[in-house]
Amino acid sequence: MPNGQIRKALSGYYYVYDEGKLLQCRGRGVFRKRGEQPLVGDFVEYEKVEEGSDGVIKKIFPRKNELIRPPIANVDQSLLVFSVKEPDFNTILLDRFLVILESHQVIPIICLTKMDLLTEKEKDEINSYIKIYKDIGYEVVDTYKNDPTLLDRLEPILKGKTTVLAGQSGVGKSTLLNTLIPNLNLKTGEISQSLGRGKHTTRHVELIEVAGGLVADTPGFSSFEFDHLEKEDLTTCFPEFERKKDECKFRGCLHLKEPKCAIKAGVETGDILEFRYEHYLQFLQEIIDRKPRY
Questions:
Q1: Is 1 annotated as a binding residue?
Q2: Domains, in order of start, for the chain
Q3: Is 114 annotated as a binding residue?
Q4: Helix (H) or strand (E) holding 181
Q5: 218 has binding-site annotation
Q6: According to the annotation, is 237 in a ligand binding site?
Q7: Which pLDDT tens digit goes with each residue over 78-118?
Q8: Is 116 known to sit in a ligand binding site?
């Protein structure tokens, strides 16, 4: 049984949480020999070298998932932060993030920022998208500048879960983190324009207790490719496709040119939205065109 969890990694040390205390630990050399690396979020077995001194991590327990950037394991969910304006709401980028999270078995929660910047007409359009994604099965939280209700609304979502933030650049991830973790003081706008690959990506990852759960103090991950995903698995990352795939005539249907495809039929009837299907086709082509790895 694990007797601790890694909550922070810094300069070769791992800080293991056990019964309300953090103990500085080293990893055993055998991890390096096996090509293993302890990650923040790992449940571990450790032992103290001697009372009051450093500990040694002896065993890493199996992970339910792991992310590369940020390097973190056993994530339950992600607050997927997207602005509705400046930058404008972008459904293909949102769907790309949703697919990546689904493929890692991380539950996405869509958090829309800057609602206060919308005109009434724009608000109607965004509300129609909110309904679309809620109907698919996603939880959606909308927020605006200096929103005093945000923490109260997020508290039941965060409770008992390990959460990371993700989303495009300039959408308010740092502002959201500062709301959740007031003593963090991340500078807003400090993330670079290249889709989040900025100064914060070099910071250490730390899990901090917030609202009865754990939140990673990193402004999200920056791996946007489908390198780990096979074409046969893409359907599983579109929940409305997954619900209908058994109705396809052929097992393993890619919903391209196969006859009696339930997904294509769903697009025809409007049960599946055309823009989601078009995004699926684009992502599928990316995976098919991917150079083989040796």
A1: no
A2: 4-62 (2.40.50.140), 72-216 (3.40.50.300), 231-289 (1.10.40.50)
A3: yes
A4: none
A5: no
A6: no
A7: 999 999 999 999 999 999 999 999 999 999 999 999 999 99
A8: yes
Burial class of residue 201, CB neighbours in 10 A (0-12, 13-18, 19+): middle
**Tens digit of pLDDT for each residue in 3-35?**
999 999 998 899 999 999 999 999 988 888 888
Which of 215, 206, 203, 123 shows the shortest CA–CA distance to 176?
A: 215
111 known ligand binder: no
Judged against a pLDDT cut of 60, whether residue 194 lies above it is answered with: no
Q: Helices 274-289 and 262-269: crossing angle, nearest 10°?
A: 150
Contact indicator for 30, 38 with CB cutoff of 8 Å: no
- DSSP strands (E only) in 28-173: 43-48, 55-60, 66-67, 72-73, 77-83, 107-113, 139-142, 162-167
Is 55 one of the annotated binding-site residues? no
Written as one letter, the residue type at 74 is N
Tokens 């040796």 belong to: 294
Establish whether 113 is an annotated binding residue. yes
| 115 labeled part of a ligand binding site | yes
Q: Both tokens of residue 248?
A: 């396809």
Judge whether 170 is annotated as a binding position.
Answer: yes
d(CA 159, CA 91): 28
**Helix or strand holding residue 136 (H, E):** helix 120-136
Per the omega criterion (within 30 degrees of 0), is the bond before 70 cis? Answer: yes
223 belongs to an annotated ligand binding site: no
CA distances from 36 to 83, 146, 171 (A): 37, 43, 35
